[in-house]
Amino acid sequence: MDSKRKFFYRYELDQTKLPDFFQGIIQVEQEGAIHSSRTYPGYPQWKLEKVKPKLWSNLEKTLLSRRSARKFQTEMLSCKTLSRLLFFSHGITGQNSRGPTPSSGDLQSLELYLAIFQTSWIDSGLYHYDRQGHYLSQIAKGANYNRWKQLIPSMVHFEGGSLLWILVGDGARITKKYGERGYRFLLLEAGHLMQNLCLLSTQENLVTLPLGGFFEEAVAKELHLPTSDVVLYVGVCGKN
Ligand SMILES: Cc1cc2nc3c(=O)[nH]c(=O)nc-3n(C[C@H](O)[C@H](O)[C@H](O)COP(=O)(O)O)c2cc1C
Residue 137, Cβ neighbours under 10 Å: how many? Predict the structure, then answer.
């Protein structure tokens, strides 16, 4: 195989990998998948609002008007708007922690973190969205915009922004079932979640701009992630 193709197909499935791949799946299915969601007990909690779907929701209209932007206001989203974005992108809406984002093997391996730059109704800081309880856990105080610019070189492509979405995969959970191919699944799932965030932002007259250029390890350290977690995708959100 061409060496460039080989690089991209590092996690490709073939006949030689198939027995191990199936073995992992069988083992996890026998043991039962873990559906417990991540929590940060003892950290300050910020209550979010209960939200309902809007009757006028029109997916086609939203898909047509979704656009990236390069200039954002810095003002923080209201609590209601942020609550809607979080719940309808990644909240729990079904059995076994199922939500709006499809999940490979029903493992619910994605975690959503936020960097909020300005203090408003919520303090500036780093947060984890608790899907089970629908609240944000403040895992670190303060989020300095220039510091994040050092961690995410793609931030030179735009100005401003209210917050960053940071999509993280639980590598231990997914590889237990799918081995190396789990990395591919995490990336695909992150794409689904980012698309949800993009479309919901459009519906709320906001923009989410997805970003591909970031220092994975440095971002992981800043968020104090377990070493088996993978930083998959970042996006900036704000009013255009
Ligand atoms: C995986 C991915 C990575 C991206 N990374 C960046 C980025 O680092 N910087 C940036 O300004 N835009 C980034 N974008 C946004 C694209 O530039 C944008 O989607 C594209 O220009 C098309 O514009 P549209 O979103 O308005 O359709 C990224 C988009 C995707 C899907």
Answer: 21
Can you tell me which residue has the tokens 């909020």?
A: 116
pLDDT in tens, 14-60: 778 888 888 888 888 888 877 788 899 999 999 988 887 776 668 88
> Phi/psi of residue 49, each to 5°?
-85, 150
Output the CA 194–ligand 1 centroid distance in Å. Answer: 11
- Characterize the bridge pairing of strands 135-141 and 163-170: unpaired
Cα–Cα distance list, 232 to 34, 70, 192, 193 (Å): 21, 21, 12, 11
Pocket test for ligand 1, best of 151, 154, 197 (most atoms within 8 A of CB): 154
Largest CA distance in the chain: 55
Q: Verify whether ligand 1 is closer than 6 Å to residue 240 (CB atom).
A: no
The pTM assigned to this predicted structure is 0.88
